[in-house]
Amino acid sequence: MKRIIICLFTLCVSALYSQTTNTSRWRKTEKDSMANAFLLYEEKNYKMALPYFDNIHHGHPKEEFVKYVYGKTCLYRSDKYGDALQMLQEVYDKNPKVDMIEFDLARAMHYNYKFDEALVMVAKYLENKRTRPEDKVAAELLKKYIQNAKYYASNTTQAKITNIGGPINTRDEEYVPTISADESMMVFTYTGVKSKGGKINEVLMIPDSVHGIYLEDVYMSIKANDIWQAPVSLENINSKTNDAAISLSQDGQVLFIYKDDAEGHGDIYQSNLIGETFSFPTKLKGQINTIAQEGHCSLSPDGKTLYFTSDRPGGFGGRDIYKAKLQADSTWGNVVNLGDSINTKYDEDSPFIHPDGSSLFYSSNGPKSSGGHDIFRAYLEASDSSFKKIENLSFPINSPDDDKYFVLAANGTRGYYSSGKAGGEGLNDIYLVETGFEAKTPVLLFVKGKVTFDGTPVESSIKVEVTSKNNSVFNIIKTIPATGNYMVSMPPGQSYKITYSYKDEKPKTFEFDASQITAYTEKIVDIKFETPKDTIPVAAIIPGKALPNEFDKEAITLLQKKISKYSSAYGKITAEGLEFKVQIAAYKNPKNYKFKHLKGLGKVEKLMLPDGLTRMTINGTFKTLEAAWIHNKKVIKAGQDDAFVTALYQGKRVYLEELVKMGIFK
Q1: Hey, what's the torsion of the CAs at 370, 374, 375, 376, to 10 degrees?
Q2: What is the pLDDT of residues 494-523, one digit of tens each?
Q3: CATH number of 553-662
Q4: CATH code at 160-434
Q5: What is the pTM of this model?
C-alpha cells in the first residue's frame, strides 16, 4: 500500500511540473511528508494527516493538487472549515472536472452556512454523468442535510451557547461533559499533553513521541460559588489506554466510562464514588457489553433502567439505542431496542435520560439532521413505554457539523455539550447551553439537601417510596459521605415518602405530594441527627424526692451509648481543670435518700449547679473519661441503670461534644 501511494504521489508531482509554472522544487523531506500524509489519509486518520498537508501547502501554496488534498482534509476539522472552502473553491474554479470536487465543495459550503450555494453545487454533482450510483446515495443525504439546515437556520430557538472557558477548557481537547442533576459536579473526557502515558502508538500501544497520539483520560471538576474549579485526573480510572467518561448518575455517585480492553474493543464500565474518590472501574455485567461496540449510556432516575448504544446485529442499521433493566442479581438484562421512532438505518448516539424520567435526548445523523449528528428530544409515552414526539433542537444548539453528548440539569434551563466549532480554546471544547426551554421545561419533583450528625456530614441511607403505589420502592440512595449531600428526582403524578436512616438513630421520614405538580419543583430538606444533650429530660420534679426513675429512659440509653463512644475515642485524654463525675440522681429540695445498693462503690456526694437541681455523684472525681466510664458501668451493674458520666471544665458543666469543639478532645 505504501509503495502504491508513493508512486501515486510521484505521478501527481510530475504532472504538476508539466502542467503549471506555479510550482517550486520539492525537497526530499517534503516528499516524505506527503507520503506520510497519504498513508494517514488512506487510514482515515484525517486529523493526523492535516498537519502534514498544512505544512506542505505553506511550502507550495499555488499548486492545485496540494490545495485539493489540503482542502479535503480540512473538511474533517471544524476550525479549518474556512480553509476547506477557500481551497476547494479555488480548485473548482480552475478545474471543475476534478473527481468529486462538486460533492466536496458542497460539503464545505454547508459547513460554512452557505446553504443556497451548497444546494446548487450538490445538484450539479447529482446531475453529473460521471457520478457513481453508490456516491449518489451520500449526495442525496447531503442534500437533505442542507435543506434541513436552511430550514433550522431560519427557525432558530432562543437558546444561548457559551464556551465555559478555563479552567475546564484548554488548548487541548475536552469533550463528553457529564453532570450531576444540580450541576455541582462535572466529569468529562480529556485528550492532550496531560494524558497518562504521553503520546502513544495506538497500534503497538507503546510510547511514541513522534507519530503517537494522546489517548483519552477522565477528569472531574467541582462547582464552588457557581464557579467551576480546576479539574483533577481520576487516577483510579485513568490508564495508558483510552478511558473516556460517558455518563454520570444524577446524584453524581455512579460514573460510567468507556474503556479499551485487551481484546481490541471497548466496553462500558462502572465506577462508584467512595468517600471522595471514584473506585477502580468494573465492567458492567449482564447483556449490555458484547463483541459489538457499546459506547455510551445513561441511567434512569430510579437507577433501574440503562439506556445505551450498540451496533450489535439485529438493529435498524448503524448504531442504535437500546434499554436494559437492572436484575435482582445486579446484572443488566431484558435488553430492548427503542424501535424505529428513535432508531434509523444511520447512527444514533449519546442518549441522555433527564431526571424527569421521560425526556430522552440523543444524537442522530439520520435524514432529519442538519448535518452530521444533531441533538433530538423524545418524550416517553407512559401508556406503552415508547418514546414519541421526536423533535430536533434546531439552531443554534445544532449546526451543520456533529453535535453530540448533550446533558441537561434537573431544572431544564441549563445544559452542556461539546463541540469543535471555531473560536474555542482548543480543538474540542465544552459549551454551556441556556436552553430557552421555558415552554417545555421538564416537570418533576427535585429534593436535595444535606444529612449531618452533630453538625458533621455523614453517609445516610435514603429510601424513596411511592405511597400512591402501596409504598413500592422507587429508589434507595446514599448521601456523599464527605459532604452529606444528596439529591433525588421524582416524576410527577405520584405521592412519595422519603426515609432517612443513620446507624442506630431513629429514622426521619418526610412525605411529598407530586400528584398535581405541573412544573419543575425543587425542595431543600436538610436532615440533622443529633446526640441527646447531657441535660436529661425530667418527666416530673417532685420536691424532696430523688429522681432516679423520673428521667426519660430512652434519652438515658442514648446518652450512655454516646459516653461509651467518646470513651473509646478520647478516654485517656487529660487536661488542666478537666474532671469527670458519675451522676446517680438529681432532686430538688433534697432530703434523705438511701443508696444501699451502691455500698462499696464510693462515697455519695452532692453536686450543686445553677439550674436549681441537686445532683448526686459517687466516688469523687476522675481525671479521664475512661476511668469515669469504667466506674459508671459498675454502678449500672449494681442496679443504678440510669447512672451516667458528666464532665466539668474549670468548675462548669460541659457537654462532651463541646470538649471536641474546644480542642480538648482531639
Answers
A1: 60
A2: 999 999 999 988 999 999 999 999 999 999
A3: 3.30.70.1070
A4: 2.120.10.30
A5: 0.78
